[in-house]
Amino acid sequence: MAVLSLAASPAHAAPKYAGIVVDANTGKVLYGDDPDGLRYPASLTKMMTLYMTFEALESGRIRLDSKVPISANAAKEPPSKLGVRAGGSVTVDQAIKALVTRSANDIATALGEFVGGSESRFAQLMTNKARALGMTRTTYRNAHGLPNTAQMTTARDQARLGMALRQHFPQYYGYFSTRSFKFGKQTIGNHNRLLGSVDGVDGIKTGYIRAAGFNLVTSMQKDGRSIVGVVIGGRSGASRDAQMRKLVAEYFPKASRGGKGALIAQAPSAPVGDALAAAGRLAALDLPTSGPLPQVRYEEQQVAAAYAPSQKRSGEALKALADVAVPIPAPEYVPAEQGDAGSDEVDAVTTASTTANIPAATVSGWVIQVGVSPNQALASELLQKAQDKGGKVLRTAKPFTVAVNANGEQLYRARFGGFESQKTAVNTCNALKKQGVNCWASQQ
């Protein structure tokens, strides 16, 4: 058995770049770099959250002055957030402005619950709407864009959504050019640095999580020309913005003048019940509910095999995976790079690991296993997720990872050591289960 240890901050593959520029008058692709490669949308997700909100406004189901209640679930979302306490409320108008400026995660969740009944139900409707708009490779699992390995998209799909927002809701599209808005004593500025600095730019949205990099969808209209550009996987906010400036400068003059626009057709709306059922089927077909990073999932068959529930497995592999939830990485809350012109746009804050990983060879006795992954970094993230949820329950526990080769399948066990007896390990595991962490105790 090979034994590997990880540092407290797991290494992650650098986000892969993807970009596209589309002539919005004709639909012609003027520039493309891996436009159909799967990527994490991060807060570009909120573009669809707003699309669904605009649709509800247009149908009369809600109004701009309708009150959006803030649930405990919404209030506990990590920053960026508006910070409204559970039990409070904001108007739909305030909620829209909070999303296009601060990219508020708490308000995105609240809007999802308000429009869809629950955030999970809303995510199903978002996925169904994506299909109706022709976004064939996009799947949603939440309303804000914080990490979920099944929530994925492409640069082409995001360009299509950007054009759909402008075409389908011209009466609301102006929200995306909001430079700032006042909420209480706060004056909240827009994260989109191209607004006001590039003539003709009228929105749309920024986004960032570590696994995605720095993302941006930009709409530009001037002198009869109209384009939508998408940059995903920027190394910093400043470099992403510089790339977008370069793209619009080079390709905007090549866009056609005039025309009615490349219409983004929308499939007829189905009854809510039918839409939910269809969304569930489509989501299940397109992507697993969790898994490794996109470049790993789709480029390494052996990793995908580790998640195939129908595949016949060796006894050791089955033992390794038994009673353990398929790993979903914990959200990575990291600040933007120091000196980055867009450093205040980050959609989350830092949470450090409470305990550094230790060499597995130094651990003996009883341990708790919280997950198994075919990826070292994800196994370490499972430990972080358990620490975040477990709190003081794991205060003195020692996190470590163990690599096992089960009949040619490389797996990584995420474990905590430092337990004096079986009773202590079992009691700790039971306490973790009450916090929503699947686990089991065993001897190292």
TrEMBL record:
Keyword set includes NADP: no
Biological-process GO terms, alphabetical: cell wall organization; peptidoglycan biosynthetic process; proteolysis; regulation of cell shape
Single annotated GO MF: peptidoglycan binding
Record-annotated active site: S43 (acyl-ester intermediate), K46 (proton acceptor), S103
InterPro entries recorded: Beta-lactam/transpept-like, Peptidase_S11, Peptidase_S11_N, SPOR-like_dom, SPOR-like_sf
Keyword Cell wall biogenesis/degradation: yes
UniProt domain SPOR: residue ranges: 360-444
Binding site for substrate: K205
This protein's UniProt keywords: Carboxypeptidase, Cell shape, Cell wall biogenesis/degradation, Hydrolase, Peptidoglycan synthesis, Protease, Signal
Pfam families listed in its UniProt record: Peptidase_S11 (PF00768), SPOR (PF05036)
Family: Belongs to the peptidase S11 family.
PANTHER family, alphabetized: D-ALANYL-D-ALANINE CARBOXYPEPTIDASE, TRAFFICKING PROTEIN PARTICLE COMPLEX SUBUNIT 12
Protein name in the entry: D-alanyl-D-alanine carboxypeptidase
Organism the protein comes from: Pseudorhizobium pelagicum
